[in-house]
């Protein structure tokens, strides 16, 4: 598995996301409370690009008329038909078993350790003093 | 070939095929754009009274939609304005990448035909039609307009049809299925007579508020339910058109349902109507053939929002039941329940089937061949 | 007919002759009231009994309403089809009289009359109870009272009501039914509190009849979205004379829409089709199916649950001719299930009496 350095830590604010390209794939990098997730930028349903998806929380209810809203920002709602996906796992909330967004291993690594190589950084230099978001593919 | 492999071949050839999209929604750039197309006599009315409909909220739908502007979140034009308001962006996001050969404009907003004031309704319909022609169909020949008519005032509707029915910029007459009376009733027949004489189709795009509860059991609570109510409404309209004898009377009439909850309901409706006709045909002697036969000869059904059975091959069986020549592809761009031609159908189609579904059936239904 | 298996007919229509017959079961002030005002009958317009469809020609009595003579019904609906149990669903206007108290009094008396005139007469008979469902507190009162008689096996509602049946003001009905272990039956029909279609008033009876499926779809969806079926998970909802085929794509659409608009109804935690396959039951007349066994099999496959089908003749309504009430095309392997197993599983009250 190769390591791809795709962004510098700090570049994507909490609750936001950006698209990076790795080996011809469009991957959506999302910052969830300063942890990162990497998802294919394509909805498994009808292929919408997920970049425009809404970052939302999880609305649950034990009983008609009662609402509990938690985990703000941990879900992505598809920009087309509104299916909800858990960002950490890529799983669809309504159909976790059979519907999921393809996801990739992602890590934060210090520039120092990257300096030992090997890694691929497509568009920017890596400095030992910074930390980077690395996708394993 | 595996199903996936077949689907990939299918996808590749679908992209090459010029598509016919039966449902594209344009909107004006601003709340007042339409005023510039409105006859000056009505400007005062427009400024002071504007839309006056049978619904509770002035600036929201009775059942607020699933998402802002009912639209895909990626369809807001980068230059500003509402989704569907920017022709250039529509070309770039929709017409070009999907290789749309022809797209039919279905105008839901601004509202013309559902306005309560008859004179203003007629004036707004004309304004909307002129706007479709000048802002959309003339600059972009791939787009075709729909003649919006003040359907409750048949004489005014006929005037509008006469005015535009021969223009190559328009392909059809658009009627709201939620009319004041079921659309098969005789008061609406002049519209069908005119459509038949001119050889243009009638489309029934879901929506519009007629002041009746959306279900026969009163007002439901949720958008979820209002959306589903489009299916019984479409069933009731088709039932009315067939059982009142409209098709017997106007045998060359072409009627197209658009966005009526996909197509899965069509077979069950046809079986049920045949059963009813066998037993109670005496009440409707004007209906000379089993109702299902009219559904097979004069009606077409657009596929969006496409049915998604748990087992994809069940949809193929539905296509078989409805008839492969009756089903039209539509995207509903830029609305949220958009169907992407590459992924909407989850079973494998042969190239010949694709050609019918994505293009040729629509050419026939809209009278282009 | 399959010899040797019990058969449970889940939809037989006895007719209520009018208020005169109910007098012995009404309080005195209602007796005077009804007779003074000339309220002799509140037959449902929907139940147009002169319509050829409302009664098979060979079942039509020489005079009066079809299904009016118990001995005729016992012979034609039960004996002729070898039914070991028949569930009576009286279609009558009592439940939809606008004045709540009168509706309650009429339902209460009609249930008493059904018990005395029909249920006491033959041990094979069971009945659905009439309740003034537009007045849910009173309906619940009648359910509590009537549930003491084990021969009443379910609560009868109509497919078209004043508001969709899931709305919370109707919940006393479900609470009472669930407590008594009774299913809710929704029968085709309307008191015309709303136009029979969302597009207004059609011209003909046949259109109203065809449009009943729209009522059923509304009620089922409302019971699901509003959370009745999750709040009362044991509650069975039996759709009677609903047609069956429409359920196929209805389930698909609900699954699809739910994924997109779940935030409106977050108490729905699993796919609607799963909830409905668990809660819904449907009688088989009419099936409204395509022709041919292979086509019927496909349709059933699309619905995905042959446990939902309940045997019915819908006597005296005219859906079929001859002596076989199983719609053509229903695979023989399912017959026993439909005739016996499914009804027994649906109506717990039947098991005790059928050994
Ligand atoms: S494309 Fe994402 S939900 Fe349909």
TrEMBL record, chain A:
Keywords: 2Fe-2S, Iron, Iron-sulfur, Metal-binding. It comes from Ancylobacter mangrovi. GO terms for molecular function: 2 iron, 2 sulfur cluster binding; metal ion binding. InterPro entries: Rieske_2Fe-2S, Rieske_2Fe-2S_sf. This is Rieske (2Fe-2S) protein. It holds the Pfam family Rieske. Residues 4-115 form the Rieske domain. PANTHER family: 3-PHENYLPROPIONATE_CINNAMIC ACID DIOXYGENASE FERREDOXIN SUBUNIT, FERREDOXIN-RELATED. Transmembrane segments: none annotated. The keyword Iron-sulfur applies. It comes from the Bacteria.
UniProtKB/TrEMBL annotation, chain B:
GO terms for biological process: secondary metabolic process. Gene3D superfamilies: Metal-dependent hydrolases. The keyword Zinc does not apply. It holds the Pfam family Amidohydro_2. InterPro entries: ACMSD, Amidohydro-rel, Metal_Hydrolase. Keywords: Lyase. GO terms for cellular component: cytoplasm. One of its GO terms (molecular function) is hydrolase activity. Residues 41-368 form the Amidohydrolase-related domain. This is Amidohydrolase. It comes from Ancylobacter mangrovi.
């Amino acid at each position: 598995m190769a390591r791809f350095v795709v962004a510098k830590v700090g570049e994507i604010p909490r609750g936001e996301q950006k698209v990076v390209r790795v080996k011809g794939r469009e991957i959506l990098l999302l910052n969830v409370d300063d942890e990162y997730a990497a998802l294919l930028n394509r909805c498994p349903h009808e292929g919408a690009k997920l970049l425009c998806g809404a970052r939302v929380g999880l609305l649950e209810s034990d009983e008609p008329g009662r609402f509990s809203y938690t985990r703000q920002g941990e879900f992505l709602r598809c920009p087309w038909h509104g299916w909800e996906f858990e960002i950490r796992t890529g799983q669809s909330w309504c159909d976790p078993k059979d519907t999921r967004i393809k996801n990739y291993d992602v890590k934060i690594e210090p520039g120092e350790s990257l300096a030992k190589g090997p890694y691929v950084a497509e568009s920017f230099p890596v400095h030992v003093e910074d930390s980077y978001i690395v996708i394993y593919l | 070939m595996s199903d996936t492999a077949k689907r990939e071949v299918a996808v590749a050839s679908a992209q090459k095929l010029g598509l016919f999209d039966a449902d594209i929604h344009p909107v004006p750039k601003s709340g007042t754009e339409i005023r510039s197309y409105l006859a000056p006599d009505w400007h005062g009315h427009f400024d002071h009274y504007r839309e006056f409909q049978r619904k509770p909220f002035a600036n929201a739908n009775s059942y607020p939609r699933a998402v802002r502007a009912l639209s895909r979140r990626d369809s807001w034009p980068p230059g500003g304005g509402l989704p569907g308001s920017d022709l250039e962006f529509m070309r770039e996001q929709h017409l070009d990448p999907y290789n749309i050969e022809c797209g039919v404009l279905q105008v839901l907003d601004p509202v013309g035909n559902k306005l309560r004031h008859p004179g203003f309704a007629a004036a707004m319909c004309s304004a909307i039609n002129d706007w479709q022609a000048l802002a959309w169909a003339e600059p972009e020949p791939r787009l075709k307009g729909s003649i919006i008519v003040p359907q409750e005032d048949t004489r005014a509707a006929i005037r509008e049809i006469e005015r535009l029915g021969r223009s190559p910029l328009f392909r059809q007459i658009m009627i709201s299925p939620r009319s004041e009376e079921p659309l098969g009733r005789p008061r609406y027949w002049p519209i069908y007579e005119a459509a038949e004489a001119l050889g243009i189709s009638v489309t029934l795009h879901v929506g519009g508020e007629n002041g009746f509860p959306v279900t026969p059991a009163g007002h439901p609570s949720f958008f979820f339910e209002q959306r589903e109510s489009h299916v019984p409404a479409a069933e009731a309209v088709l039932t009315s058109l067939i059982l009142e004898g409209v098709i017997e009377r106007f045998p060359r009439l072409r009627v197209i349902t658009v966005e009526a909850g996909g197509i899965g309901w069509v077979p069950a409706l046809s079986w049920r109507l045949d059963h009813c006709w066998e037993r109670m045909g005496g009440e409707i002697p004007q209906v000379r053939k089993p109702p299902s036969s009219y559904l097979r000869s004069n009606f077409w059904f657009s596929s969006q929002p496409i049915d998604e059975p748990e087992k994809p091959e069940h949809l193929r069986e539905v296509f078989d039941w409805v008839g492969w020549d009756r089903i039209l592809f539509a995207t509903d761009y830029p609305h949220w329940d958009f169907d992407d031609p590459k992924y909407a159908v989850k079973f494998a189609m042969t190239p010949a089937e694709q050609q019918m579904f994505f293009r040729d059936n629509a050419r026939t239904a809209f009278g282009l061949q | 007919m399959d010899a040797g298996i019990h058969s449970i007919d889940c939809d037989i229509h006895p007719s209520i002759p009018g208020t005169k017959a109910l007098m012995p079961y009404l309080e005195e002030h209602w007796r005077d009231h009804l007779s003074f005002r000339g309220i002799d009958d509140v037959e449902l317009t929907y139940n147009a009994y002169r319509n050829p469809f409302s009664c098979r020609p060979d079942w039509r009595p020489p005079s009066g309403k079809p299904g009016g003579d118990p001995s005729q019904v016992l012979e034609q609906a039960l004996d002729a089809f070898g039914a070991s149990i028949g569930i009576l669903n009286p279609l009558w206007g009592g439940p939809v009289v606008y004045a709540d108290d009168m509706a309650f009094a009429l339902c209460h008396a009609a249930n008493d009359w059904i018990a005395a005139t029909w249920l006491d007469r033959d041990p094979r008979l069971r009945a659905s109870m009439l309740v003034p469902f537009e007045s849910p507190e009173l309906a619940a009162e009648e359910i509590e009272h009537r549930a003491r008689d084990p021969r009443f096996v379910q609560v009868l509602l109509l497919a078209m009501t004043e508001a969709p049946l899931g709305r919370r003001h109707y919940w006393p009905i479900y609470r009472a039914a669930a407590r008594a272990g009774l299913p809710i039956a929704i029968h085709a029909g309307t008191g015309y509190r709303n136009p029979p279609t969302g597009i207004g008033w059609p011209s003909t009876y046949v259109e109203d009849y065809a449009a009943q499926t729209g009522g059923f779809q509304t009620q089922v969806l409302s019971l699901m979205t509003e959370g009745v079926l999750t709040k009362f998970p044991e509650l069975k909802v039996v759709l009677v004379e609903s047609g069956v085929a429409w359920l196929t794509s209805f389930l698909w659409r609900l699954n699809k829409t739910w994924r997109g608009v779940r935030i409106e109804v977050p108490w729905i935690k699993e796919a609607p089709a799963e909830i409905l396959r668990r809660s819904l039951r449907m009688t088989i007349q009419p099936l409204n199916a395509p022709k041919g066994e292979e086509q019927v099999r496909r349709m059933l496959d699309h619905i995905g649950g042959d446990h939902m089908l309940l045997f019915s003749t819908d006597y005296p309504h005219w859906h079929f001719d001859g002596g076989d009430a199983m719609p053509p095309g229903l695979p023989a392997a399912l017959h026993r299930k439909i005739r016996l197993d499914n009804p027994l599983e649906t109506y717990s009250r039947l098991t005790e009496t059928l050994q």
